[in-house]
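Notebook p. 47: complex prediction with zinc ion.
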Amino acid sequence: MNEQNNEIHFVVDSESVDNVGDADELDHELRYESVEPLDIEPSGNSSQEAFEATITAKPLMLIQRSHQHSKILPQVYNEIASKYSDYIDYGAVVPMPRMSPKQIKAYFNSIPDVSLKIADPESFARMDSFGKTLRDQRDDQPYVGPSTISNWDYLTKPLPNGPTKSWVSEVVSNQYESGATLILSPGLWLDPANSTGSLDSVREQAEWCREAVQDSDLFAVNLTLPSAWLSNPILLEKLLNVLLDLDESTFYIRVRWPLLANPYGQLLDTSILSGYIELASVLDENDKVLITANTGLTGWLLLGRGAHGLSTGLGTGERSFADTRVIKIKQKGPRPAPTPRVFESPLLHVIDKNTSDRIHALGNTGTCGCVFCTHQSSSTTAPFSKPNAGAHYLLETARLTAEVASADNRLDAVKSLVDDAVSLRLAVAKNVPLTGTNDPKHLSVWKNLLV
Ligand SMILES: [Zn+2]
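Predicted complex, C-alpha cells below:
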C-alpha cells in the first residue's frame, strides 16, 4: 500500500474486490519485505535422519513459503506427514531472491524432516526478463526488493548477449548454498514473439545446468511462460516438441494467469486450461514429470489429467501467479478489517466465514476437525486467525491430493469430487445462494473440461 495525497494505492490480483480490507491483505502478501522473525524453532523429529530427497510415483504437493504467517508451516508439514505421507510426497519452496540467505537457512532448518527443498531462483524477475512488467503491475514496486536483491548477483548481473554458462552455474550454486535438494534451471521468461530463440535458450540452459548439478535425478527444467504458450496450439506444439526432445524428465512450469475473477480464485480461461491438460497428458504419456508451480486447486485438477505435482501456499501470491493491478482510492480514517475467509473443501472454494457457517448450519456438510480448525473454533472471543485458516486450506489440499492418489483412476477421483461440489452448491442454493466472491465459478468450467 502506498499513500499519496490521501490517495491509497493497493495491488490486487483479482477483478473483484468487495472489501478494501481484503486489498490491503493481498498487497502485503505481494510485498517483498519479510515481516517474519528469524527465530523459528525446528519442528519434527530432528534427531531422525531426514529422508533422502527423491521424486517417486506419488503425486507431489509443494508448499511455497509466504512472507506472512509462515511460522505455522512446520506444523502443517507435521500434520501432512502423519496423515498423508503414505499417499503423497511433499516439499518446500522458497522464493530465493526475495529472501536473504540467512532467512532461507533459518526456514529450511525449521523443517528438518522435509527432504525435498527448492530454492526457486525466479530469474524471470530480472529487469531484462519479466521484471519490468511485474514492476509496472505493482505500482512501480520491484518484484525483488532492495532488502534482499544485493545478495543475489545473478538477478542484476548484465547479460548483454543472453544467458551464459557461468551465469547458469552461479544460479545453480546459489541454490545448493541455500540448502536446496531439488535444483531448478534459471526460469527466465519465455518470449512468444521470439519462440524459436526462447526455446533454443531453454535447451542450452538445461544442458549447462546438467553439467553443474550434482545429481541429474534431482534437477528440473524450470520454465516461466506467458499463457499464450498454452492457449495457442502452434506455440504449444513447439514447446512440447522441445520438452519431449530434452534428456531431462522433470519440468517445473509456472504460467502467468490473467487477473483472477475472485480473490483466491481459480483459472477460468478454458483455452489456457485445455493447454495445461494437453501439456500434462502428453508429458505423462512420454514418462515425463510435470510440476505446475503456483497453481493451487487448479494444479490439483490437473493431477487427474497426468500432472505429477502442484504448488500452493498460504497467500494468494503463492496459490497463483496471476496478473496484478493497482487500485487507487481516496480514503480517510482506518481501513476496514479483511473479510474472514475459509477454504470450504466440499465446495472446492474459499468463501467468507459467515457464509461457511450458514452452510454448515444446514447440515449438508460436517465441520472440519483438523487441529487448525479446532484452534480456530476453541474460542468465540479470539479474533479470526488467518494462519489457522490458511493451514486448514493446505492440509485439506493435501487430503484432496491423497484422495486422488489413492484412487484406482485419478481422473475418476477428481471428477467425483468436482461432481460432489456441484451437487452441494445446488443443494444449498435455496438457503445460501453463493454469489460474488463466494461463487465457485470454476466448478462448471472444470466439469466441462473433465467429460
Ligand atoms: Zn480444518
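Notes: Residues 342-449 form one domain. Residues 368, 370, 372-373, 392 surround zinc ion (CB under 6 Å).
Next step: compare against the earlier run before touching the bench.
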